[in-house]
Design a protein that fits this description.
Layout: E1 4-10, E2 15-19, E3 22-34, E4 37-46, H1 47-56, E5 62-75, E6 81-94, E7 112-113, H2 120-131
Parallel strand pairs: 4-6
Antiparallel strand pairs: 1-3, 1-5, 2-3, 3-4, 5-6, 6-7
Length: 132
């Protein structure tokens, strides 16, 4: 199984480009591992998820990402092989609360999935009712 979940803050504004008909959004996030340790994770989203991240998230915003780890490599201009790791986004959570939101910026008090019509607790509760 290849599943990754992280909560952190964006370290830069999302950058979007087109590749054929596919929209690609790249950014990175910082995750506090402890008081003295921060991990920086590269994030890549495609199509609808890319558009949503570009529209609603900016540098410094809290974000929750669910995705999968993708490892790749390329040869740089000096001929050396460079290995990369990034997260391919499967789902995004708005984690910015009202007091953290900038003027005019959208905010949600409860974490809400951008790909679902309901807040997450309601979706969880309906799942629990169905499984009984």
């Amino acid at each position: 199984m290849n599943k990754w979940l992280g909560v952190g803050r964006l370290t830069r504004d999302p950058e979007v480009r087109m590749s054929g008909e596919k929209t690609i959004c790249r950014t990175s996030m910082a995750i506090n591992m402890s008081k003295d340790q921060v991990e920086y994770i590269n994030i890549t989203a495609f199509d609808k998820k890319a558009d949503l991240i570009e529209k609603y998230f900016h540098k410094g915003d809290r974000i929750g990402i669910i995705g999968r780890i993708h490892n790749g490599s390329y040869t740089n201009k000096d001929g050396a092989k460079v290995y990369t790791s990034e997260i391919y986004v499967e789902d995004v959570e708005f984690l910015q609360d009202k007091k953290e939101a900038k003027p005019g910026q959208i905010h949600y008090v409860k974490p809400v999935s951008v790909f679902s019509e309901e807040p997450l607790p309601s979706r969880y509760e309906s799942y629990m009712r169905e499984s009984k």
